[in-house]
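Sample pair:
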Amino acid sequence: MGWFLFTGGHDLNPELYHEHAEVTCGELCIERDMMESILLQKVIELDKPAFGICRGLQLFNVMLGGTLYQDIPTNLQLHGNKIVNHKQSPPYTDLVHDVHIEENNILYDILQTDTIKVNSYHHQGLKMLSDKLTAVAVAEDGLVESVVMPNRSFVLAVQWHPEYSYKVDDYSQKLFAAFVHAAKSPRYTIHIEDIIA
């Protein structure tokens, strides 16, 4: 086992970033938070490929010292009066807002473009970025949409859901192809004993 996908799901416990849960905070899963925090720490320590989706991006940020908006509609200050729909209705294969990508990072290298359209289904987002991560893509309202971890071979996370759109969107396919390619490298061979030790 040499690669790790951190998926969407429950809200992260705000106590992990030293806040109390607001009424707008969603359902929590303390056990999942604990398990994934231990796993992420080991994955980073061993420099294994890690890809985060939605909650996965938020997990990377929080576990590395960042914070979250507990509810974007009530917490996020508008950036340039742009209103972005971050919680679309089905179908989730529809691409609903633009994401602007910085150059000279692994996300740009994979997608080879500075703007893509993405789907969006989340009510939380990155507030204070961890100093161990670099933001490489943002939405039009200024919300961080993708991060990488410098000095690691493949630690990448996105706020959108490529698992919903990969059948209709080339950029989503490229993300998964790059993750699988990184995982196939012999350098990433890992045994489960390394994780639970």
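The chain has seven helices and nine strands.
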